[in-house]
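Feature request disguised as a bug report, sorry. It would help if multi-protein outputs had a clear separator. Right now it looks like this:
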Amino acid sequence: MSIQKNIILEDTTLRDGEQAPGIAFSKETKVNIFNSLVEAGVKWIEAGIPAMKGDEVLALKEILERKDEVNIIGWNRGILEDIKYTLSLGFKAVHIGLPTSNIHLKHSVSKDRNWLLTTASDMIKFAKDKDAFVSISAEDVGRTEMSFLQEYAATVEQAGADRLRLSDTIGILNSQQYVQRVSIVRQASSIDLQCHCHNDFGLAVANTLAGLEAGARYFHVCVNGMGERAGMPDLAQMVMALQHFYQVDSGVDTRQLTRLSHEVAQASQHAVSPWQPIVGSNVFAHESGIHVNGMLKDSKTFEPFEPEIVGGQRRMVVGKHSGRTILQNILDLDGVQTTPEALEHCLALVRKTAGEHPGGIPVHVLHKLYQQAEGTSS
């Protein structure tokens, strides 16, 4: 399957990402992350929720100083006053969050479908009369009846919406099911669609790629995959998957992915897992003897791409699963003359003491172990 070349990545780290429980960015932090996203080449950013007022608005006002450089979206509840306030701040683009499933209509907003269709139309027309770009949600598409989803899509398109966000709000769809929703909407409407997939079953990236294959144009990401509950599609994973599997350039400078990940991890006070795809510290780390042997001959043996492409760094780790080759390589680089017998003894010592050194045995410790091994073998 192919993906159209004019797809648009939109980052929502500053909105859905910050809605992760316990996360609260300061004004300065929020502006710094925004600037880092722009510097990395992100052109569409959902920057926050103006209706929260206070420091949120102070940050958004500073962010809006760059509204001629990047498309900045303000998120709104399905309340006209929210939209009026967001536009008064100078936003050129607004998103309107509205649910479409019966369970959300009944228990989240206590309204019915007629209210939804009328409210959506009225709010879209109001914002379009102000010359705004208007995005609107179909929240909880996983539990929305297909026929009503089609009716809703046709209604918001007729009202003038620029984009319909298909939100798998609780992440209950697999890729085939998400594609079905995208395809059903495309049959009923020509409106641009946006993928908004949550990661409750670990399928956010896969579902987003599937949605883009099915014809969606926009898609949401968050740095480090943060977001409500299990999070959102990870920015770095989406950028690299599009490039590797579809030869699609998202416009993001891949060399900044690791740095951006570390910045947001520090701001959110949640460390990046060593196994986090693309940016984790173990992604380009090699310990086992077979792996290291191959890597020392050709880096393509055990890496899908060079670490420099994503701003990462390759590491050769000395540990329990290491072989003689890496020991000799490290010691040779430090000018240590080795013998096969001493290396064999050193390897035994490495395996015996590896548990004392989480993350790998440091070079200075390896030197001591080799000196000890020389004494044993002499």
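(second protein starts here, but nothing in the output says so)
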Amino acid sequence: MADIDLYVDPVCPFAWVAAQWLLDSAADEHVVTLRPMSLAVLNGDHDVDADHAPMIVRSRRIGRVFAAAVEQYGRTAFTPLYLELGQRWHAGGHHADDAVAAALAATGFDHRLIEALDDARYDAAVAHAHHASQAALGGRSGSPIIGVDGHVFSGPVLTEPPRPGSAPELLAALITAATTPGFAALQRPYQGPPTFAGVEGQR
């Protein structure tokens, strides 16, 4: 059994695909914990091109809602809110603010947490969570970041869900690679953006 941590920014579509794959493939064999990070904090000191600027704004605003939920309900609030948001936004194509409101309702969390979208008081908590992700990696990286039994890497980046028959095999291969001494990195050129066919309704 492996302890797997996946650090995700809720706005990151690649992280959404990876999270769905991990949660569906781990079953009772491994423990998967989703943890927050922030693309807004990551890029806070960098110029962002016009195509990515809206995503950074969404990262900042939605990250605040997650920080507020964790403050009110504890760390275990992150995963159910993340899954409900992802189904409505990444998989369902809803407007971001509407998806947040619906996700809060679906989890039974206080609907007033939606007000945190524009409440900068939560920025420090978002930054703290993000810095924890970078400290775990030991370097700078975007979303997602994965840790397997304490061996932490940038990624995995998936552009579509693995086929059901190959999903557990991919997880086994990732665990083997991550826990192999000396294994450092494996990367191919950008293949995005991700597609979500087959993701909606899985969770």
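Even a blank line would do. Unrelated, but nice: Strands lie at 3-8, 31-36, 145-148, 151-154.
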